[in-house]
Amino acid sequence: MIPMAFDYEVAESVDHAIDLLGQHGEDSKLLAGGHSLIPIMRLRLAAPTVLIDLGRLEELRYVRDGGDHLAIGAMTRHRDLLFNDLVKEHCGIVGWTAGLLGDPSVQHRGTLGGTLSHGDSSGDMPSVITALEGELTIKGPQGERTVEAADFFQDYMMTDLGEQEVVTEIRVPKLAPGTGWSYKKFSRRSQDWATVGVAAVVERSNGSIGSARIALTSMGATPIRAAAVEQALSGASPDAVAEASQSADEGTNPSSDDAASAEFRRHLARVFTQRAVEEALGR
Ligand SMILES: Cc1cc2nc3c(=O)[nH]c(=O)nc-3n(C[C@H](O)[C@H](O)[C@H](O)COP(=O)(O)OP(=O)(O)OC[C@H]3O[C@@H](n4cnc5c(N)ncnc54)[C@H](O)[C@@H]3O)c2cc1C
After folding, report:
1. For a FRET experiment, which of 41, 134, 202, 230 has its CA 20 to 30 Å from that of 274?
2. Gene3D superfamilies recorded for this chain (predicted)?
């Protein structure tokens, strides 16, 4: 289908984008890579009257070493993350997952800020940034603020973003040496969205598991931490992973749709949690 007619503005800076959002009000939308927004406009599930294009904001396209964390500009494309040396060295799960998003054309256009702001719980990056306990920097008319990923995702496609706010940066902690990670994704067709995905970040401590942070994709309205598994694995032997993973679907609320029933999603969450944690442990 063809989208409803809309006007088009080019943002020359973040402040300009914020001004334009203020001028055009609630019917305007920011456009980043367009790989989620344009498809839903074509389905007429969204009909913004004005698109404000962030595409020329090279100032928001970077990966920087922030000391104990990596700072990633919101307009950094998935493809940039896939090949970035800092990401490979300090937070490989981000680059690895960027390589699993759709196909190369999606990766060349889509942005990290866009996929998080879209707030789709079947997106892969929301779970990864949640498992990393990352945070987002958001700028609006009142200035800048920071919000943890866990508080950013509020409901299905609903985030903490105000009407006149722009995500400018995403911060992820550098993983300590010896920290293992994995993102496992099950989809029915290659390059498809996750029927279920599991992001795991696991720290080892003297042969035991020090801590495990696990976030699930497509298991509810937001990315969901597998809290019961995390608790069971804290200080546990790596041999406890299989049993602990049986609680992966506790506290989730998966839906049934064409891709899978809710029950099958629960099963996938248990199986893929075990696989992801074991891979993170190098087993
Ligand atoms: C064929 C196809 C397959 C795909 N497969 C996958 C997949 O397997 N896994 C997956 O996770 N994703 C997948 N995607 C989605 C892809 O990752 C998108 O790039 C991403 O979801 C949105 O990023 P974007 O930069 O394109 O944002 P846009 O589509 O431009 O914007 C999305 C939303 O975020 C808002 N927004 C964008 N940037 C900002 C910002 N800086 N501040 C505030 N609001 C902002 C927009 O207003 C809009 O509401 C797929 C897309 C396609 C078309």
Report:
1. 134
2. 3.30.465.10, CO dehydrogenase flavoprotein, C-terminal domain, Uridine Diphospho-n-acetylenolpyruvylglucosamine Reductase, domain 2
